[in-house]
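Private note to self, pasted from the team thread so I don't lose it. C-alpha cells:
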C-alpha cells in the first residue's frame, strides 16, 4: 500500500485564473502599499464577511500584534493555552503577560465559568480563540468584558466566513483576527485581516501597518510594516470566488467522516452547534482511551504507517513549550492538557476524495479490532 494522504493541501485557483488576476499588476507596476487588488479585496471581504471594517495584513500573527498595540494594552491578557503558538507569542511579544484560562471539554473553547476568577487589577483584555471554527461563548465573554471594562480580541484564525445566530462572527469583540495562511480554509498564500466595527480604529490601524506614515512629510506613530502585497491580494480575490465550492466539497467530506466514525467507541467528534454555519476547516477527533481501548499516539502511528498523516493539533500545549514551561504550569489547565494529549486532526482539504475518507476510517476500524 503506497497511498500517501497529507493532513492538508493548499487549495488553488486554476493557473489561468490567477494569471488573469495578476495581469493588471504588470500594467500598473504597483506591487504593494494598498494597491488596487488590496483595496478590492478589502471591500469584497467586508461584504462577504458582513463586518464594517477589514484591514488586510501580511499575516495573521502580525495582525494580532498590531491589534494589541493599537488598542494600547498594558498588563495581563486572559487567554487559552489550547491554540497555535501565535496567540500566546503575540501577547508576550507585545510586552503583555498571558494568563491562561482552561477550556471546556465540549468544544475546546475558553471555559467562560473560569474567566472571572483570573481577573486582577492588571487585567486589560481577553483573547479567546474560535478553535477549529467552534465559536466561543461570545455572549458571556461580552458580558464579562463589559462588567470589568476589558477589551476583547478574538483569534478568529479558524472562523473565516462563519456566522453565529445569523450574524458574521467577526462582529463580536473589539477586533477579530483572521489568518489567510496557505494552510487555512481560505488563503492569500500568506496573509490575514483585522475585522472590527469601530470607525475610530481605521486610521490608527492604517498607520500601524505602514510605519506610521500619514503623508510625505508626516509620520504620526512608530508603526511597523505589515502590509499585504498585490500578488497575495490577487490570490485572495481568486480564492474568494471559489470559497462556496470549497465549503460544499468539505461539507461532504466531513459528513462522510462523521457517518463512518460515529459508532466507534471512544472517538469523540467535534460538536455541531446549531447556531453556527460551519466552514469545515478542520476535522479534530479526541481519542478517549478508556472507551476506545487505545491512545491517540497509538492510532496516530498506525495511521502514519499506513500512509495517513494526521496532525497532533494542538500538541504540545503552549504552556509546555520550551519557551514557556518554566514560567507556566500546564497542570493548572487540566482540561486543555487532557485534550491536547488525546486530540488529532484528520486529513481535510478540497480534493481529498470520498475514497480517501473511507480508507482512513477503515484504518480506525482495523486498529480497533487489532487492539482488542
Ligand atoms: C494560523 C493561526 C495563526 C497565525 O496566523 P498566520 O497567518 O500564520 O500568522 C494564529 N492563530 C491560530 C489559531 C492559527 O491557527
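Design output:
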Amino acid at each position: 500500500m503506497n497511498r500517501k494522504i497529507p493532513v492538508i493541501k493548499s487549495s488553488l485557483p486554476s493557473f489561468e485564473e490567477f494569471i488573469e488576476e495578476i495581469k493588471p499588476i504588470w500594467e500598473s507596476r504597483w506591487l504593494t502599499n494598498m494597491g488596487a487588488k488590496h483595496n478590492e479585496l478589502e471591500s469584497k471581504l467586508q461584504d462577504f464577511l458582513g463586518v464594517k471594517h477589514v484591514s488586510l495584513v501580511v499575516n495573521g500573527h502580525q495582525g494580532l500584534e498590531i491589534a494589541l498595540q493599537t488598542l494600547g494594552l498594558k498588563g495581563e491578557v486572559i487567554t487559552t493555552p489550547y491554540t497555535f503558538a501565535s496567540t500566546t507569542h503575540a501577547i508576550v511579544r507585545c510586552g503583555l503577560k498571558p494568563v491562561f484560562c482552561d477550556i471546556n471539554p465540549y468544544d475546546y473553547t475558553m471555559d467562560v465559568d473560569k474567566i472571572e476568577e483570573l481577573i486582577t487589577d492588571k487585567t486589560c483584555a481577553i483573547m479567546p480563540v474560535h478553535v477549529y471554527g467552534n465559536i466561543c461563548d461570545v455572549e458571556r465573554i461580552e458580558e464579562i468584558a463589559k462588567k470589568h471594562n476589558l477589551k476583547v480580541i478574538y483569534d478568529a484564525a479558524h472562523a473565516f466566513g462563519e456566522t453565529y445566530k445569523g450574524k458574521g462572527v467577526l462582529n463580536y469583540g473589539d477586533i477579530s483576527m483572521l489568518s489567510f495562511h496557505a494552510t487555512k480554509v481560505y488563503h492569500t498564500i500568506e496573509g490575514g485581516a483585522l475585522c472590527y466595527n469601530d470607525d475610530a480604529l481605521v486610521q490608527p490601524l492604517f498607520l500601524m501597518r505602514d510605519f506610521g506614515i500619514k503623508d510625505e512629510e508626516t509620520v504620526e506613530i512608530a508603526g511597523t510594516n505589515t502590509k499585504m502585497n498585490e500578488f497575495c491580494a490577487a490570490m485572495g480575490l481568486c480564492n474568494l470566488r471559489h470559497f462556496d465550492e470549497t465549503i460544499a466539497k468539505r461539507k461532504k467530506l466531513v459528513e462522510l467522516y462523521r457517518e463512518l466514525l460515529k459508532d466507534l467507541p471512544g472517538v469523540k467528534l467535534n460538536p455541531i452547534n446549531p447556531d453556527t454555519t460551519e466552514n469545515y476547516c478542520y476535522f479534530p477527533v479526541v481519542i478517549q482511551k478508556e472507551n476506545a481501548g487505545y491512545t491517540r499516539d497509538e492510532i496516530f502511528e498506525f495511521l502514519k504507517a499506513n500512509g495517513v498523516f494526521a496532525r497532533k493539533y494542538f500538541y504540545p500545549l503552549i504552556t509546555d513549550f520550551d519557551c514557556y514551561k518554566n514560567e507556566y504550569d500546564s497542570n493548572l489547565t487540566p482540561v486543555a492538557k487532557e485534550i491536547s494529549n488525546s486530540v488529532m486532526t484528520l486529513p481535510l482539504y478540497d480534493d481529498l476524495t470520498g475514497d480517501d475518507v473511507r480508507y482512513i476510517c477503515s484504518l480506525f476500524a482495523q486498529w480497533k479490532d487489532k487492539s482488542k
